Amino acid sequence: MDEIEEVYGAGSDQPTPAPQAGLKANFSAWHHPVKQLIRDQQWAALTEKLLLKDRSETEQKALNYFTLPGADLLDVRTLSLRLKSLGTVIEYFGFDIGQSRTADGDGMPSYLLAESELRQAGHVSDNSEVLGDALEDIASVTSQAANRLRQKPVFDVINIDGCNHLSFVQSKRDKSVFDAVTTLLAHQMLSKKTWLLFLTTRVDPELMGAPGVTLQKAILENVEAHGISFSGPVAQMLSGTPENIGSLLTNGWNTPGAPLLRLVSVGLGKHILQFYHAQHNHPAKVELASAYAYCVHGNTPDMLSLAFRVTPSGVRIQSPTAKPVSVIEPLELNSAIPIVTRAQNLWDIDAAIKADPELEAKCISGSENLLRAANFDIEVWRDWVAGHPERPIPKERMISATKIGQKT
Amino acid sequence: MELASTNEPTLVKVVSSPNLPIESIEDSGELSNWLDDPSNDGQLVKTKLSTSDRVIARVTDGIYRQPASALRELISNAWDADASTVTILTDAPRFSRIYIRDNGRGMSNEALTRLIKNIGGSAKRREEGQSLGITASHDTNLTPGGRPIIGKIGIGLFSVSQLARNFQITTKVKGSNYRMIAEVRLRQYSEDGEDEADTESEDKYMSGDVFLRRDNTDDTEAHGTDIVLEEVKKPVRDLLRSASRWQSVEEKQTAESNGEADDLSIADVEPPIFHSGYIKNLNDPIEQPSLLKIAPEYPWTNDDAPAVRMDKLVDAVEGQFTRTARPDLNSTLDTYLEMIWSLGLSAPVQYVSKHPFDLSTHDLPLRAFWITDGRGRGKEINLESGRSIREAVSEQIDGAPKLVSGDDPLGGFKVFIDGLELRRPIRFKYHSTGERGLNHAVMFVGAYAPDLSQVSNVYRGGKLSLEGYLFWTGRVIPKENNGVLVRIRDTSGALFDPTFFNYQVSELTRLRQITSELFVIRGLDAALNIDRESFNYAHPHVQLVARWQHAAIRQLTNRVKSMAADKLLERRNQKASEVASELMDEAAKLWRQRQGSEPPPVVVLANSPIEALAARQDGAIAVERSALSIPVGRKSSTEMDSKTTALITALAAFGVLEDRTYDEQQKLIRAILAIFADGAT
Predict the structure, then answer these.
(1) Cβ of residue B226 closer than 8 Å to a chain A Cβ
(2) Closest partner residue to B85 among A107, A126, A377, by Cβ?
(3) How far apart are CA A35 and CA B18, in angstroms?
(4) Class of CATH domain B24-232
(5) A380 closest CB neighbour out of B14, B42, B288
(6) What is the C-alpha separation between A195 and B22, in angstroms, rounded?
(7) Closest-CA distance of chain B to residue A70, Å
(8) First to last CA, chain B
(9) What is the ipTM of this complex?
(10) Are the C-beta atoms of A80 and A42 separated by less than 8 Å?
(11) Does the distance separating the beta carbons of B226 and A119 come in below 8 Å?
């Protein structure tokens, strides 16, 4: 670094550009109405259920939330709307490596506006913050991201809303999203209450990488340890029979589509289960609360949106004479089978929206409300959705959904 | 969404709305009307951040010595906005961005416009402030909620220009159906005339650009102000993260490992004991992860509640007593934690333990006195039955004075920084000065409101009234809490003044044992220099306050002397047989010549580290025999003991041992003894 940069800092050769006037009109995958179904019916509904079912009235007033929110805090906005009646104040912490680039075309950094708006309304706490690091950095022990994470309490909800696959490693980095998930599981070890993990990820057989091997192993170990008890339900999930479990798994892992998505769902569930079974003193029950699939890169579902519910069993005191515990014990099978069952019922939300005009209208009006609050140009948005290459929705249906939304 | 990057899936971008031209408005009234017009929702308007003259421009560009000063101004603004909570977030130890969030009234479009277009022309404490809703309707000195207004000049907000190139204000008033966002892009002040864009006209100077917009909202109940400092300046980041200190520590370690540790320039550099960690390379996290070279070492744990954290910070500094007799902040804390400390001192927040007026004998062994007019030794206040000083004063002093300092009409003001609740880091503890000293602390409290009616209002400088205390204890920890701190409207820009307004009487030992605060209720603020960190000593209020303070010190020292004399007499009666050696008499004489009537310190030659620690806690100067090579418990060592004790007393009389760690003290004494010893020590 030369002397001038030492004093003036990087990027001092040009003044910060002026913000652009007008409403925002840059749209990405998460602005499509289909995403609203995940935000509303998976994230918000399950979070509300968590607070109502597993928290006292006093505890309902605060939600510790880990998020990768994006510039408009759409997930936080959705949660705050849903939890308003409970008087819940959300304290979020998360990362957005793109945050320093949010002025590129969208005017003032929109996350700052969204934060101020939600905070001044009392929906999010004063301590909420999003740092400009990459999520994966938390897996590097000496990173600033990990340093800040360690200073946070355990979370009630963790939402890893990723656009990429679990094995994705950014350039000049050596940790993957999967590593970050494992770090977060470790962070949650001291949680005494039920918590939720939302995980949205791209699934492509070509891009599974090392995490793919881990997930395959997680399933195989159960198949080997529990035989038909486990391979039976897995085979049924893959529309086959237990005798062909080998080929079913091989084909499933290598072919894009619903079987692969189901296998990844089970593999992730099994991985989390095994993680907790390895912590003999801190066991936990792991459930797959819901599993959604949708398309982003083509006409075959390639995105998974999973919700895991983790219920710690409390600290288990071991006798000094206790024998070492096998990693896979019968208890894990009892938890693994419901995960398989839930994965079998993987919900194709593209198809669901297509088949249900009411649901589609709800998603459209919900998205529109969020985007309007975040200062997007709704007219341009409608054009964008109407011209979407994979999931276009005619503009008339969009306008009509708005009218229905206004009436309700 | 966070992962959108190189292989971002289907990031579909439609041709965005055309980049509309931004309207410019310079007239304040027009700007205010524009902001009030709902048809402008979501639109931008541009205006010039202009100041009425170059003096104000220069002031706006930066007058403070520390980053904490700028944050202090923003905290004061939140107080003036009747906020109950202010939260400051930094991403320490990176300090790339700083948030300041409050739940105050927020600014109306008129108030925001006035702020931007009239820097240095605050409407606070003026009738105009009443129409803008920023002062009470009946008293322009008070906020609508009844707090004394701190701000007066109108440059406080722009103090942040010293910290960051750009900042953003988002503000909303309760009841309003829109919020306003002002993005401020600042220009570095220059006087070389190179850039003509700086100058609007002969007497107008452009400090930067402001982009304003209003956003409609259905949530009319929302209120508050958010300030985000973006692009924190590199030198400020370096200062906050103690970069030069860590670099020197690294150089020293390298030199030591290379056997080149004799470099004097870095020999004394030590790492702070508590700190927020250190990131050596402030790279952009987009490029590669930010990595900590040094992991943080906070005095609190992540599970500690915000208020407990401040308590532990004070514990941490006080705990350095095991290393040195007068712990200081600089050697214990990094710049960031020191900033928290100084903000705690300056902000109108609670004390880490109790307000001094609320102390009683349940809290510490204490005798209290009322500062009387003129000379004397103060009037004792009876603290029996556990009554507080505040209660006892009201009951026992003529006219039943009511001490009001510490009351907030709105029920409390809390400031949080990165999960820590700021409290005033001042504790009132009794520290012994040894068996020859008092066995209790001494508190002098008083109120002062001189009758200035005989002075022409041309020269009077306004009314003056204050309350204050002087607290005496054997040792003030940390040493930075020694002196007098003046709070005007419950806030202070300065740190403790250890000279007590240049008190000239030779009472060095006792002055070092006093912590004093003056709570100014009315007046004196006109004597504050513009940085609010120093006073115009020619102002009559400063002279009056200094005189009152000096008189109070005299009363306190007279009282402490008299109590010490009584104690000495009592002790002599008890130990009549004790005969001091001739050598010690000489040392004591020397002590009195240098330090006045205070009895010389007790010197203990300890046989173990634990014995030394216990003696130090009891107010003695203790050195370990093993560190001096003095034999333990041998008869022949009696003479050596006497000489060593006399030497230590003489060194203490000249202040040579002061501010040295125990280790350094012992090394020094050993070196002197070695010179005069017969043969090797």
Answers:
(1) yes
(2) A126
(3) 27
(4) alpha beta
(5) B14
(6) 47
(7) 5
(8) 72
(9) 0.88
(10) no
(11) yes
Secondary structure (DSSP) of A330-394: HHHHHHHHHHHHHHHT-EEHHHHHHH-HHHHHHHHHHHHHHHHHTTB-HHHHHHHHHT-SSS---
Whether residue A372 lies inside any domain: the answer is no
Within 13 Å and on the Cβ side, how many CA atoms surround A364?
31
Contact B568, B627 (CB under 8 A): no
Q: List the CATH number of the domain containing A236.
A: 3.40.50.150
* A173: pLDDT strictly greater than 60: yes
Please report, as a single letter, which amino acid is at residue A258.
A
Q: Does B85 touch chain A (CB under 8 A)?
A: yes
Cross-chain residue pair B10–A148, CB shorter than 8 Å: no
- In three-state secondary structure terms, A198 is strand
Nearest to B240, CA basis, from B335, B103, B174: B335
Structure-model confidence comparison of residues B261 and A339, the more confident one: A339
Asked if A172's CB is within 8 angstroms of B288's CB, the reply is yes
Residue among A20, A135, A172 minimizing CB distance to B2: A135
Mean pLDDT on B404-412: 86
Q: Which residue of A has its CA nearest to B17?
A: A25
What pLDDT shows up at residue A373? 86
Q: Please answer yes or no on whether B284 and A100 come within 8 Å at the CB atom.
A: yes
For residue B302, give the 3-state DSSP assignment.
Answer: coil
Distance from CA of A87 to the nearest CA of B (A): 14
Q: A395: Cβ–Cβ under 8 A, 6 or more apart, which residues?
A: A382, A383, A385, A386
- Residue B390 in contact with residue B363, Cβ under 8 Å? no
Across the interface, whether the CB atoms of A144 and B9 are under 8 A apart is answered no
A296·B165 Cβ contact <8 A: no
| Coarse DSSP helix, strand, coil percentages of chain A, rounded to the nearest 5 percent | 50, 15, 35
Confidence of residue A326 (pLDDT cuts 50, 70, 90): low
* Contact check, Cβ <8 Å, A171/B234: no
Q: Flag whether residue B197 sits within 8 Å of chain A, measured between CB atoms.
A: no
- Considering the domain boundaries, does residue A328 fall inside one? yes
B215–A375 CB contact, under 8 Å: yes
Structure tokens belonging to residue A159: 């939402």
DSSP state of B125: T
From the list B43, B231, B302, the residue facing A16 with the nearest CB is B231
| Cβ–Cβ gap B9/A140 under 8 Å | no
Q: What are phi and psi of A80, to 5 degrees?
A: -65, -35
Which range of residues forms the domain containing residue A291? 23-354
Instruction: Grade residue A102 by pLDDT with cuts at 50, 70 and 90.
Output: very low
Q: Where are the domains of chain B?
A: 24-232, 238-344, 351-406+421-569, 582-676
Tens of pLDDT, residues B455-514 = 888 788 888 999 999 999 988 999 999 999 999 988 887 789 999 999 987 677 888 899
| Token couple for A36 | 């609203």
The answer to whether position A13 is within a domain reads no
Contact A29 B285 (CB under 8 A): no
Look at residue B14 in the predicted model and tell me its pLDDT.
Answer: 40
If you measure CA to CA, which chain A residue comes closest to B278? A144
- Rounded CA separation B83/B150 (Å): 13
Give the count of domains, chain A: 1
B46 and chain A in contact, CB less than 8 A: yes
Domain presence at residue A364? no
Select from A108, A126, A163 the Cβ nearest to the Cβ of B101.
A126
What is the DSSP annotation of B83-119? -SEEEEEE-TTS-S-EEEEE-S----HHHHHHHHH-B
Q: How many CB pairs under 8 A join A and B?
A: 236
Report the chain B residue with the minimal C-alpha distance to residue A81. Answer: B219
* Helices and strands (H, E) in chain B, number of each type: 20, 19
Q: For chain B, what percent of residues have pLDDT higher than 90?
A: 37
